[in-house]
Amino acid sequence: MRAGPLRSWFGRGILVVLALGGMAGFAALGVWQLERRAWKLELIDRVERRIHAEPAPVPGPEAWPSVDAAGYAYHRVRLSGRYLHDSETLVQAVTELGAGYWVLTPMVTLQGTTVLVNRGFVAGDRRDPGGSAAGNPAQETQVTGLLRITEPGGGFLRRNDPAAGRWYSRDVTAIAAARGLADVAPYFVDADASSDAPGGPRGGLTVVAFTNHHLIYALTWFVLAIMAGGAGLFMLLPERRR
C-alpha cells in the first residue's frame, strides 16, 4: 500500500534533480554568452581604433612569424614599391557594386620584400587582365590600406583551383606558390580608395562588420534557466497544492 507514494516521491525527486541540473546548465550558458559579448565589444572597439589610426609601415620579415589576427588584422598600413602586374590574381568577390573579382597584385617593396596588395574590385566583364591594364601604374607607387590575414583553402563549399586559375579566397601562400613568388609577406593589404588609379580597380570596399547577438542569446538561456527552476519548484509542492 505504501509502495505507490514512495515511487511517486522518488520519481518526483528525479525530476527535481533534472530540473535543477538544467537550470544550472542554462545559467552557465547565459554567463558564457555575457563573457562572449564582453569579448566581442572589446574586439569591435579595438578594430575601430585600428582602422581610424594613422597608417604605419607594413610589418617586415622580422615580424612575419608573429603576424596573426589578434595582433595585426585591420591595422592601417602603408607601403611603397612597384607592382608586378603580370603576376596579378583575380579572386571571385561579391561587393556592394555587384559580382566580380578582387585584383591581387604583388608589390615589390622598397625593402626588397613582396606583399600581395588587393588593389580593389573589378566587374565580371573585366576578368581578362588586359581589361584593367589602363589603370596599372608602372612607376613606383605608394599604397595605404588595411592589413588582412590570409584566407587559406577557399570559399564556402568551393576550394581554390590554382591549376585552373579559379580562386575563391585570398590565400597568400597558395597564390605566391602559383605565381612563383619568393619572400612574400604572410598577409595581404586591402588598398583604400586613395590608392585608386584612373581606370583601375575600385579600392576601399573592405567590409568591417562583426555580428553581436550575444545579449539576446544570454537572455534566452537565462529565461530557460528560470523556467527549469520553476518546474523544479512546482514538483516540490504538495500534491493538493499542485
The side-by-side strand order for the widest beta sheet comes to 2-4-5-9-6
* Radius of gyration over all CA atoms, rounded: 28 Å
Low-confidence stretches: none
Return the string of H and E elements: HEHEEEEEEEHEH
Q: Provide the residue-averaged pLDDT.
A: 86
DSSP strand content: 15-25%
Q: Span from first to last CA? A: 23 Å
Percent of residues in helices: 25-40%
Let me know the number of strands.
Answer: 9
Give a structural overview:
By secondary structure, this protein is an alpha+beta fold. 35% of the residues lie in helices and 25% in strands. The protein has a five-stranded mixed beta barrel. Strands 7-8 form a two-stranded antiparallel ribbon. The model has no long low-confidence stretch (mean pLDDT 86).
Question: Which terms would index this structure?
Answer:
single chain, 242 residues, alpha+beta, five-stranded mixed beta barrel, two-stranded antiparallel sheet, 4 helices
Sequence-ordered SSE layout with sheet pairings:
Layout: H1 3-51, E1 56-57, H2 69-72, E2 76-83, E3 89-95, E4 98-109, E5 114-123, E6 141-149, E7 154-155, E8 158-159, H3 172-179, E9 184-191, H4 214-236
Helix pairs in contact: 1-4
Summarize the structure.
With 242 residues, this protein is of the alpha+beta class. It has 4 helices and 9 strands. Helix 1 runs antiparallel to helix 4.
